């Protein structure tokens, strides 16, 4: 079914229509300086398409929350939820096909990036059965997919950029159609901008931005000057969803308005006679006299390198044996390390954090508990983490059977070892095969679809064999070990996840 969205008027007053079905397949990029009408354009698109397609708006300034009153969007206040909760909310959004506005207002730049990445990740990781068409609008996209590193941490930038790349590069097959708006193309990561096939270019002044906009629209460089003369709300459109040739478009009116409009000029009030007294009201009593600020003596001239080395040699104390806390009994130390790791994993969100973050938390807890000796390095921590996620009790890894399992897992990628050991633990104990949700949790995800894809990946590489009994329950065989799990329901819920949800609700 073809649905045409009225975006406004084109040359000669003709309607400027946008093919919604084509837009869902080809994505859209909007560029314009501040005040050019980008938010107005996005609002027009959201209002016109609201009856036809599910929508999700990443709103850094809280401009689009008013859509809730007119069109029933659910406003999600990012400041009130953790990253894990936002990921769960996004999954439910796809399940129930509800249009939402993720309000990031009030968060700093890094928190906005992390919250948006978690929410987009939840939309992206939804099960295949929930891949319904969805319009995902990201305003001020340069904040979430910056072309260069800024003041935020590298980890936050990497996570946010990865989520935006997934949206624009791989989201189409999952029903996600990205619509991104940016003030400057030069500030937006190229691999994100390059995936859009439809463009709406508004007013811009810098030569580099005008030249890039002209290149994207297939215009000659001498025509790039026209972008300086565009009025507010006027754009040049190009793409299969709107026009095969550059088309001037004037965006039409909207039904809703942002919570706070642009500041308006107002005449100043009459100056009161006591204006000076009003602004010079004394505050808290001040000390009668400020303490004198001591003058610092002039800094001595810097010493030469030779003088510094001689001074260090004279002041160096006699060599003494290095003081370090004794390790004590190795078995007792291992038990303490396992107990600390269980403390780390007891956090409901620990299953969905990166290994690097968990390792830092583990090292801090080792210092708090005064564990003697050198702490485990990263490879040793990964091995312990995989065993802990597999549900291995303390001391179980000393048995010959489990040593075979760990040796077989060592040849697998780090993020898969935990899943293999989880299945090996169940097979060794004769327990039922873990469900998709339990397997997903072991690899740091909430997506049951990811768990199924991971099992298929392992089966293609002859690591395991899956089959079903007459009741549809799954059985996993590990040929390299000669072990087999008992039948288990692949669709059973994760009891740990249910406990987390009940705790969050309480």
UniProtKB/TrEMBL annotation:
Pfam families: DUF87 (PF01935). GO terms for molecular function: ATP binding. Residues 313-323 have a biased composition (Low complexity). Keywords: ATP-binding, Nucleotide-binding. Residues 285-304, 313-333, 481-506 are annotated as: Disordered. Residues 294-303 have a biased composition (Pro residues). Gene3D superfamilies: P-loop containing nucleotide triphosphate hydrolases. Residues 15-79 form the Helicase HerA central domain. It comes from the Bacteria. This is ATP-binding protein. It comes from Azospirillum oleiclasticum.
